[in-house]
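#struct-help
A.M.: can someone run this one for me? Single chain, 349 residues.
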Amino acid sequence: MKQFSGNVKRIREHLQDDTSKFIFDNRLLYALTGDYEYINRIILSLPQRKELDEAVKKCRECGDDLVIWGAGNDLLILLDLYPDFPIRCLCDKDVHKQQNGWRGIPVISPETLVQKKDEVYVAINTSAYQEEIGAFLKSHGFAEDRIINLGIITNSLYSAQYFDADIMTPQKDEVFIDGGCFDCSTDKAFIKWCGGGYRKIFAFEPDGENYEKCVKKSQEEGIDNIELFHKGLWDCQTELSFESGGGQGSKIGEEGGNVIKIATEAIDNVVGDEKVSLIKLDVEGAELKALQGAAGTIRACRPRMAICIYHKPEDVIEILEYILSLHDDYKLYIRHYQMSPCETIVYAL
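D.P.: on it. Structure tokens below:
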């Protein structure tokens, strides 16, 4: 316990602002107790939560005339935040959901929805596609006062993740490591953030379906100077069991179910002489191992880092402690980017 206490004290000394200390303290208490109240404290501290409260209040005032567009992960988060949120009808492009409903709630198609444009109100509840959906509704005659955009609120939170302008600014000739590139959306955000002023991207994705998305998107959207690896990140080159989620939420797993074998690589083995300037890791619980596999690069290049610290309870201590063991002058910031326990990031500068 003395060693554990010492680690906490050392980490807090490197946290650069009160926001970081507040999130660290509550994530640590959540890790120790499992009490969700500590996560609620973090969520309630987000300015977007207050905006969402106001938007949800407007939704409630619509009563039975409200249709929620989006029957996915964002809806689950919404219901966790507001368990008594009244949902009478959903809209989604997914034909299977239209045919079978979602948890007993009917799901209509966008085509059916537009036929009711003068009868219903629509709450857009998807962050990724809120702009596209809003444009669709307006182009099909929905009045602005019949559209409540929840997604624009949550998207303003998500979109800052990894490249928070309050914390980091781009450098000339960035060399970016994207650990867990999913569909290259982070790489696109990186390019936008640095204004295209980068030399190279190393992107790693072990999930086969996601890797193919990355290949397709990088070609279609002309992402230059990107090297894609169909591999996970670890502390060495090996083979591991990997639980494929067919999308988000894949992770290192056990035998059985959707578990497949994946090849892994260490960052130190692939970057060569490149002067890595920025490392992002969202690798579903393998962050510490991936950092250990980048120890030489981190010592030599002292890159800035944006690392997920929410996949395992111990991450909030072990990852920060390991970063400081490589360079004890790193300045640490912690931010949270989702209205759930997920998406807590430590920045090391």
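A.M.: thanks! DSSP finds 15 helices and 16 strands in the chain.
D.P.: also worth noting: The chain has a mean pLDDT of 94.
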